[in-house]
Amino acid sequence: MSETSSTLSVEVWRGGQNGSYQSFEVPRRASQTVLDVVTHIQRQMDPTLSYRFACRVGMCGSCAMQVNGVARWTCRTHVSKVAKDGRLRLAPLSNMPVIKDLVVDMDTFFEKIQAAHGRFKGEHTRHEPVALVKPDSPARQEADAGIECIGCGVCYSSCDVVTWRPDYLGPAALNRAWTLVNDERDVDGGRLLAVAGDAGCHSCHTQGSCTLRCPKQLSPTAGIAGLKRMAARAAMRGELGNETGGA
Ligand code: SF4
Ligand code: SF4
Ligand code: FES
């Protein structure tokens, strides 16, 4: 099929949480991405359409939305791969409140990363030598495996447990915690406790939607399994105390 000789039927979510879909006919182009489609609608058809993007090259993570029911980065998703019979249905990410149209409120998502102690805590100053971490140490390899997360929310939007229990920290926050507990330079002693509670790693059902959908090919599922093992060992050694956090 020639990509330039037809149009796409695009349904786009409009309004807030109780909004509805609006239909547009958008010209098909060669090598067209879903973000190109949204941009065409906003620039040529309805300037009131709200959506987010910044880099257009899969670096910032701001363009994620649901495309035909699946959370994706729209800048890296070609229409030819996802349009079903020339149709696209675009919706905001799920598991986050809708602000307007395709824009969601990501505050809770980022607050959970904070709650999971997702910030590096070092003790060296710039006056000390750079820490030497062996590239082939098992902990370094675990940390490397999860470090490329860009906080796009695709995994979080794809996680059924987040839908069922909104206090669950979710795959991105737990992946970040796993990365940092394996960082030999980090000195935050409370991170494992923060993620070992009821709403933390033990709530994961290990079905792997997060890993299946992550556009960076990270595996939050593997990191969460690592946290479960680490937390269980720490609990057996009596290192987690009686109280555990989680959200
Ligand atoms: S783990 Fe992957 S899907 Fe989840 S926020 Fe990070 S980059 Fe996005
Ligand atoms: S594997 Fe765990 S974190 Fe990932 S989608 Fe499933 S329940 Fe959510
Ligand atoms: S616009 Fe930055 S990842 Fe898509």
Automatic annotation (TrEMBL):
The keyword Metal-binding applies. GO terms for biological process: respiratory electron transport chain; tricarboxylic acid cycle. Its EC number is 1.3.5.1. Residues 8-94 form the 2Fe-2S ferredoxin-type domain. Pathway: Carbohydrate metabolism; tricarboxylic acid cycle; fumarate from succinate (bacterial route): step 1/1. Residues 139-167 form the 4Fe-4S ferredoxin-type domain. This is Succinate dehydrogenase iron-sulfur subunit. The lineage of its organism: Bacteria, Pseudomonadati, Pseudomonadota, Betaproteobacteria, Burkholderiales.
